[in-house]
Amino acid sequence: MKRAFLGELEEIVLLTVAALQEGAYCASITQTIDQQMGRSISFPTVHTTLQRLQEKGFVASQMGGATAERGGRQKRLFTVTVAGQRALIECRQVRVYLWEQIPTPILNLWGA
Amino acid sequence: MGSLSNDKPHNDGLPERRTSADRRDSARRPPRWATWLMSRFSPAGLEDELQGDLLEMYAYWVKTNGVRAARWRYGLATLRLIRPFTPSIPKQTCYYSQPSSFHPAMLRNYLKIALRQWRKNKLYSAINMLGLSIGLATCLLISLFVFDEFSYDRYNRDADRIVRVVLRGTLNGEQIREANVMAPVAQTLQDRFPEIQSTTRLRSIGTPTITYGDKIFRDTQFAFADSTLLHVFTLPLLKGDAQRALARPNTLIISQQAAKKIFGTIDPMGKVVALFDNKTLYTITGVMANVPPNSHFHFDGFASMTSLAEANSSNWLQSNFFTYLLLAEGRDYRQLEAKLGPVVETHMLPPLEKLLGVSRSAFRQKGTNLGLFLQPLTDVHLYSDLKPETELEPGGDIRYVYLFGAIALFMLLLACINFMNLSTAGATKRAREVGIRKVLGSERNKLIAQFLAESSLLTSLSLILAVGLTWALLPFFNTESGKELNLNLGQMPCLVPAFVLVGILVSGLAGSYPAFFLSSFKPIVVLKGSNTPMGRGSIGLRSSLVVFQFFISISLMIGTMVVYRQLHYIQSTKLGYDKDQVMVLEGTRVLGKNETLFARQLAQDSRVSKVSVSGFLPNNRYQTGLIAMQPEGQEAKLTRLAYFGIDDQYIPTLNMTLAVGRNFSAAFPSDSSGVIINQTAARLFGWTKNVLGRTLTNPALPANGGKGKTYRVIGVVNDFHFRSLHEQIAPLVMVLGDNSGSIVVKFRAKEVTPLLASLQRQWNGYGTGEPFTYSFLDEIYQSMHQSELRTGHLLLWFAGLTIFIACLGLFGLATFTAEQRTKEIGVRKVLGASVGSIVSLLSKDFLKLVFLALVIASPVGWYAMSRWLQNFAYKINLEWWVFVLAGLLAVGVTLLTVSYQSIKAALVNPVKSLRSE
Asked: Is the pTM of this model over 0.90?
């Protein structure tokens, strides 16, 4: 299988799924991104991104958790698969590697 | 959020209950339309989660952004999430990638499988390919024919701006539809209407003799033409100046072909030739490219109109000139046509009043009304309603073009049907293959691609074969259809994409049904061993396709038989005169006074039985005079009659018979004012008895103190057909004298060649310088019905081919049925069935279909052919046995086709058929 490419949006959604753990479903993910990143991503976009992630095999899903808030309707709960985990780790490694290449004086200069 | 959730009914999908409950705080509900949309068009499998998530999101949006923004976002999100903008459940993860259907490896695989299939089923592939290529070749041939017919006169740059002035109307109740008009029409119209950019006239002069030096030519067609000819028509001059070539009197332009024939390699420019006789000399001022074959005239040369005195005539009653108008850009000819009425009123009607001797209102009442009309140049060949004998050349007929076009389409359809039939019939054989492929993970669209690839491969091979076949058959088709078609890809570059398009179309048409049908098999059903995965439906479809094929073939067969019977009728009907062993010596007018002498001299020959001098002959090629006469007792009525000038030998030479009275005779000097009328004329005048001695007056002749010449009827000739059988026999008068023009020779000799040689010797003895030309009366008669003969021949071929294609398909089907029922036949034989009963068992099914086709085809054929026969004034009756014969033929052909397979199947030893498995 080809190494699946993880887009920026996909990465964020996947990270949010990982962060939310058991409570990761489409509405909660959208709200989390909205609140914590101050970045407004529309609900349908998150939905399609999740579908794409599932097609690529980075998340798995199961139904469950009907609550009164949602009119007694079931949620689709997402969990990160092993492939998803690996993709995230790899992603982070690439970033860390790149960060490490920036000379320390410059980082200091940035105030980072 | 809590307050929202409380009043929400928990698990219902019924919108009306929810809305009634929610009305209390409707402002805080999501938009109802969006909720409804979501409940109706939610992607399959995602209903619950999406609706629930959206509700949660709505509450969140209301909290963070306010109600308005929330409703807005909810609506937008719904629109994006409903079908078809969002797919259903996410596709299953596929760990094995599927190659695309067009991957080179797949294509190679399709090819390999197709070749293996062909090798395995050689017979069916051959039948398929043969049928398809014959169908395609016929289709191609006919398309060439049809395109050629439609391309007539389009070579002219301004073809859509050129119109022809024609004459239509009635004269004494008789229809006038003439393609040529009077000499002054062109100039008058040009002066009066500024929208006419240019005009030109043609006056055909047939094939006059041309003398150049000591060489004489007589097979080049000439016409007089106005100097504007080259403005109006696109006839490029290779040599000479187009502006001035035809301006001066006695100038001539000739075609390249004529130049080569007359002058060989010498430059013809400025050379002098003599036309007609040795007196009138013409200077060649131009050489033009040959007139294209798809033109409504084919002159080899044009002489300047200024040489012809008649061209300046102001006679508005003599129509001889083909008149063409070039309209200014963007002008509609119908508008101009509407304005032609006053021109006729001021110019044509006054002389007509004078001729007929009554006022215009009087003759209008009696059914005389003439008018000038316009006909677009591009309509001349196919859509002309004018009398063919007034045209420059016989034209085409749009109905035949449509007929052949339909045949072409049907042929192609039949070939495609064969393909479909054979592929679906052979489905049993491939059912297992499909099953195995599906089990091994092949998707349906891959299978469809494979079957389509097979059919398109077969189609492209057939197409190549068809092009070869067309190329080989073209000379034959040209002689049958009288055309000069060629299959030149360089000349017609549009043909290549057309071929590709046809190929795609045919492979799609023929291949798509089998592809979808075969690929739909369910692997479990197919692999369980049941031999017939096809339902009744496909058998029904196959049967109706066979019925359709035979419907077309039987209809064509009926058509061909009727056409041939009518042709036979044309050949064998009693014409009222004898056309066999009669020779016509043409152009004897040049002999002058010696014409009669020559005729008498010919009569001396022992091989010649009778000789008559007359320029009037009973067929369309020769003129029929027209004369207006007043019959006795009906003096006020001027009747237009056909007119023959004859001598006393005419009636016996052509073996006509008289109903009453006698022939002209030298013994009665008073016969110079005698007249012989035909039975139709007698009936028209109402002269049922005592016809002899009645009189007819011709007021146009100056005699009898201005009252006109009076003729006394001395005989009534039995009606004879002096026109083609399309036309009713018209009233006719025959008078003595005025008969110069040609000599009619009735001969008894079986060997014509020595007689001809002797006639030519005698002709040359008169030293007129004119070549000796002759024709045979029966051949002229034949040529009058040329278009029917051609249609008959072509129809015969096409009917034969359609039957052939239909039988190919039937043969294939019969083979499959026999194979499928091998075991059944074996069991039947073991139980004591005879060979005969098995053959009839196998043939019965097909015969039923053919009978059904016959039942459908008979009324259709009857209707179409009775319409066709309406073209003829004299015709056969459509008899029932034609339909029976067509049916018998079809049944016979079917039996022959099917019986080979059924007998073969019936003769197989049951041990062999039952042993297997």
From this structure: no
